[in-house]
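for the writeup, i need someone to sanity check this before i put it in the appendix. the sequnce is what the collaborator sent (i think, or maybe the updated version? ugh). structure was predicted straight from it, no edits. if anything looks off just tell me and ill rerun, i have time this weekend
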Amino acid sequence: MSPELNASVAVLAEILQSRNLRLVTAESCTGGGIASALTDLAGSSNWFECGFVTYSNEAKVRYLGVPPAIIEQFGAVSEETVRAMVAGAVNNSLGDLAVAVSGVAGPGGGSDEKPVGTVWFAWGNAEQQITECCHFPGNREQVRALAVVHGIQGLCRWLSC
């Protein structure tokens, strides 16, 4: 983990602990990379609740309660889906807030509308989320690494770290 990412995780941990909040991750294209980066910090069990790696659409529906109609209408890589993933992660855990990520890491799977490198993020709780769509350059490994960093930094922004 980079020194910048280590610093972000440390600040995030301090804020979560000071507010007595538990964090949940709901990940697709990052495959648990955000949860892994967070739990690299010793003592993360004090503020990290759990992580859902819901790579398939069926898993998003079954474990996070994403309505199938959302995926059918907007696709798995969409603002609507990541909002539902955040709400589902919080509602299906003992967590207080969550980060969700769904994207096209490549090398295949892209389209004109959602090319490789398109990643949607959501941060928030069951009632309120903020979202962002990013278009990351690079190969699969680079897209996933950039998404992990952005997901964690977004948590800091959401909490105003």
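DSSP finds six helices and five strands in the chain. Helices lie at 3-18, 33-39, 57-64, 68-74, 79-91, 140-159.
thx in advance!!
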